Amino acid sequence: MGDLIDLVVTEKSAVAHGVTALTLRHPEGRRLPDWSPGAHLDLVLPNGMVRQYSLCGDRWDSGSYRVAVLREPSGRGGSAFVHDRLRCGDRMAASAPRNNFRLAPAPSYLFIAGGIGITPLLPMIHQAALLGVGWHLLYGGRNLGSMAFRDELAGHGDRVTVVPQDELGLLDLPAHLPPPGPDTQIYCCGPAPLLEALQRLTAGYPAGQVRTERFVPAAETSAARDEPFEVELRRTGVTVVVTPRQSVLDAINAVGATVLSSCRQGTCGTCETAVIEGRPEHRDSILDDSERAAADCLFPCVSRSGSGRLVLDA
Amino acid sequence: MLTLPVSEVDPFSPEVLEDPLPFQRQLREAGPVVHLSSCDAYALGRYEQVHAVLRDWQGFQSAAGVGLSNFRWEKPWRPPSLLLEADPPHHDAPRAVLEKVLGPRALRKLHQAWFADAEGLVDEVLAEREFDAITRLAQAFPLRVFPDAVGIPVEGRENLLPYGDHLFNAFGPHNDLVARGTEGIGALSTWVDAQCARDVLSGNGFGAAIWAAADRGDITGEQAPLVVRSLLSAGVDTTVHGLAAVLYAFATHPDQWQRLRADPALAKVAFDEAVRWESPVQTFFRTATADVEIAGVTVPEGKKVLMFLGAANRDPRRWHDPDVFDLARDPSGHVGFGMGLHQCVGQHVARLEASALLTALAKRVDRIEIAGPAKRHHNNTLRAWESLPLRVRLA
Ligand SMILES: Cc1cc2nc3c(=O)[nH]c(=O)nc-3n(C[C@H](O)[C@H](O)[C@H](O)COP(=O)(O)OP(=O)(O)OC[C@H]3O[C@@H](n4cnc5c(N)ncnc54)[C@H](O)[C@@H]3O)c2cc1C
Ligand code: HEM
Ligand code: FES
C-alpha cells in the first residue's frame, strides 16, 4: 500500500469527436480513494508522461473513476497516447485525487463550460441536481460533434444551453451572468480566452462568487516511479535509498524513523514531515499550490523526491 | 447464509462501561457481525469490518445519526452536526474548510505557544509531588489552550466539559446517563450556541478562520456557527480523555516512560499508541443505506451498525499483543480517530496538545506512578476518567 494508486483501464469509448472516455478501476477491484466534484487525478500514463484529468464519473461508485480526454494535436503526446495507444487492460498509476476547484454551497449556480472544460463541471451538475438547487449550464464548443456528454445532459431540458460555435457563435456571457451577490455562484472551466472574458466581465464581483479552473499544462515531471533517490534523516542520522517500488514512508521507517501514518493515501495529514533540503514531488491531496511551492514539508506516504536527494526532519 | 450470533449484553450498562474489555473480547470471538438485542443494532468488533464500514460512506451513512437514535424517524436532540452527522454532498464544504483551518500547516503557528504553555502548566502542577492527573493536567491543559485557539471568551468555559459529556452520552441509548444530563442541557446548549457567533469570537482563532471562509463563500453564513460548534463539541472532552489515556498508560508502564524520556521525539507515537490502546472514543454508529452485506451477513436497509473502535484497536487479528502499550509498535492504522471521510479532522490538534504536554513532563519527571484508587467516569461513548491520582519523582 501507499505510494500511487494502481489502476487498470476497463472501458474506453469515444464520447465526442476527439474526446475519449476511460473507466479506471483497481486491478483487484478494491475501493478507490474518495473524491468530490472538481477533483482531478495525476495519471502516470504507461509511456511515463504525467497528465492531469478531471474526474467526471459518479462518486457513489467507490470502485471506478471516469475521465475524458481531448486529443491535443499540438501537445507533447500525452493525450495522443491515450487516444492512439492506450487499451482496455492496460495498467497505470495515479496520485490521490486533488481538488482545487471545489463546489461551495450556494442557492444557485451558473456553470460555464468551454469544450473539454465540461469534465469537472459534469459531477457538479449532478450534485446540484441532487440537491434540488437552481442551476444553469452554458456549454460552448467548436461544433456539436466535438461536445462531449450532450446525451447525459439532455434530460435536463432548458437548464442546459448548448452553443456550437459554427452555428451560433461564441457564448453570450453578458446575457447569462447573474448580478454580483451571494445568490448565484459561477463555475467556469474552458480555454484561456473564455476564462479571460469572464474575468473581465466579473471584475467587480465579490470574492468567491466566480470560481474557475484552467487546464494549464504543468511543466514536464518525470515518471517519478522509475528512479531511486536518497533521503537523509537528520534526526535519526541515517541516509536511505528509496527504490521506485517503495514509499518514502516505508523506506524511512525501515531504517529507524518513527513517522506515524494513517490513511496512506495522502489525504489525512498524519505523516507530515518537515523538509530541510531538497525539492519534494508532492502527490498528496492536502497542500494547495502555494503550500506546495513552499516545499517545506511533505507527506511521505505518497510523495517523493523531485530533486534527487531529500533531507528530512525525521 | 451465515447464522448471525446474538448478544444480550447491553454495551452501555454500567458494568460494561466500567470495564469494556471482556465484552469486546466476547464480541470479537462471537463473529464478525453480532446482533445486539438490547438496541437492535449490528455490532462489529473486529478490525477488518470496522475499518471497512468506516470507509464505506456510500453503504453506511452518517446523516441518520452516528448514535443509536435514527434521524430518519427520530428528531435529533440538537440541530445535527454539519460534519459528523452529514453525508456527501452536504459534508464536503464544511469538511474542506475545517481541514484547512485545523490542518498541520495551520497548526505550526501554535506550536511554540502551546509548548511554552505546557511547560508553564507542568511547572505549576509539579509544585506538588501528588496530584489528580485528570483535573490538573488532562482537563487543565486543553482548557488552557484550546478555547483560546478557537477564540471564545473566558467567561463560561466551565460549560464546555458538561456539554461534551452529554453530547457523547446522547449517542447511546436513553439510559440513566442521558436522563441525568437532559435537565441542564438546555442552558449549556444556549451558551455553546452563543459562542459561535462571529462578534463573540476573537479575531485570530479557528472560529474567525471559519467565518472568513464564509466571507469567501466556501461555506454559507448559516453554516459557519454550526462549524464552530463542531470544535466546541468534539474538541474538548475527547482530548481530555486522550491525554488521560496516555498519562494512565505511562503510569502503568514505567519502562515505556523511560523510553520516551530517552527519545522525546516519540511523543506523537506514544499518544497514538495510547489512543489505540484506550480508544477514548469507543463507539460510533452508522445506518445502512440499502441491504448491505458485511462478512456474509446482510444488514437490512435503515438498520443501525455499531462499530466498536476500541475492540478493533485491540483485535489480535490485526495487532500483535494488542493489550500491551508499547512505544516500539507502529500504531499507524488504528481506528481511534476513525478512518475515511469522517476521520477526525481535529487529530492534529489533539496530537499537538499531547506532544506539548508529554514533552514538558518528560523534561522534568523521572517516574510516574498511580498514587491511589483511580476512578472511571461512565459515558456512553467515551472511555473516560473521573480521577487518576498520580505520584511523580522529579528528574
Ligand atoms: C487540473 C487539470 C485538469 C485537467 N483535466 C483535463 C480533462 O478532464 N480532460 C482533458 O482532456 N485534459 C485535461 N487537462 C489537460 C491535460 O492534463 C493535458 O494537458 C492534455 O491532455 C494535453 O496533454 P498533451 O500531452 O497531449 O499536451 P501538452 O503537452 O500538455 O500540451 C497541451 C497544450 O499546451 C501547450 N504546451 C505544452 N507545454 C507547454 C508549456 N510548458 N507551457 C505552455 N504551453 C505548453 C501545447 O502546445 C498544447 O497546446 C487538465 C489539466 C489540469 C491542469
Ligand atoms: C484524542 C482526541 C480525539 C479523538 C479520540 C477523536 C476521535 C474522533 C473520531 C473517532 C471521529 C470519527 C467519527 C465518525 O467516524 O463518525 C472524529 C471526528 C471528528 N472530530 Fe475528533 N477526536 C479527537 C479530538 C478532536 C479535536 C481536538 C477536535 C477539534 C479540534 C475534533 C473534531 C472532530 C470533528 C469535527 C469530527 C467530525 C469529522 C467529520 O465527520 O468529517 N476531534 N473524532
Ligand atoms: S498517512 Fe495520511 S497523509 Fe500520509
What percent of residues of chain A adopt helix (DSSP H or I)? 10-25%
The oligomerization state is heterodimer
Structural class of chain A: alpha/beta
Task: Label the CATH architecture of chain B.
Answer: Orthogonal Bundle
Low-confidence stretches of chain A: none
The percentage of residues in β strands of chain A lies in 25-35%
- What is the string of helix and strand elements of chain B? EHHEEHEHHEHHHHHHHHEEEEHHEEEE
* Count of runs of 4 or more consecutive helical residues of chain A: 8
Alpha plus pi helix count of chain B: 15
Query: What is the CATH fold-level name of chain B?
Result: Cytochrome p450
CATH architecture of the largest domain in chain A: 3-Layer(aba) Sandwich
Give the total of domains of chain B.
1
Per CATH, the class of chain B reads Mainly Alpha
DSSP strand tally of chain A: 19
* Proportion of beta-strand residues of chain B: 5-15%
The overall pLDDT of chain A, averaged over residues, is 93
Map the helices and strands.
The complex is a heterodimer of chains A (314) and B (395).
Chain A: E1 5-16, E2 19-25, E3 39-44, E4 50-54, E5 64-70, H1 78-84, E6 91-94, E7 98-99, E8 108-114, H2 118-131, E9 134-141, H3 150-153, E10 160-164, H4 165-168, H5 173-176, E11 184-189, H6 192-201, E12 210-213, E13 229-233, E14 238-242, H7 248-254, E15 273-277, E16 280-281, H8 289-294, E17 297-298, E18 304-305, E19 310-312
Parallel strand pairs in A: 8-9, 8-11, 9-10, 11-12, 13-19
Antiparallel strand pairs in A: 1-2, 1-6, 2-5, 3-4, 3-6, 3-7, 13-14, 15-17, 15-19, 16-18
Chain B: E1 6-7, H1 14-18, H2 21-30, E2 34-36, E3 41-44, H3 47-55, E4 60-61, H4 92-101, H5 104-125, E5 130-132, H6 133-150, H7 160-169, H8 176-195, H9 206-215, H10 223-234, H11 237-252, H12 254-262, H13 267-278, E6 283-288, E7 292-294, E8 297-299, E9 304-308, H14 309-312, H15 347-364, E10 365-370, E11 375-378, E12 383-387, E13 389-394
Parallel strand pairs in B: 1-2, 3-9
Antiparallel strand pairs in B: 2-3, 4-6, 5-13, 6-9, 7-8, 10-13, 11-12
Helix pairs in contact in B: 5-6, 5-15, 6-11, 7-8, 9-10, 11-13, 13-15
The structure holds flavin-adenine dinucleotide (FAD), protoporphyrin IX containing FE and FE2/S2 (inorganic) cluster.
Protoporphyrin IX containing FE binds next to α10, α11 and α15 of chain B.
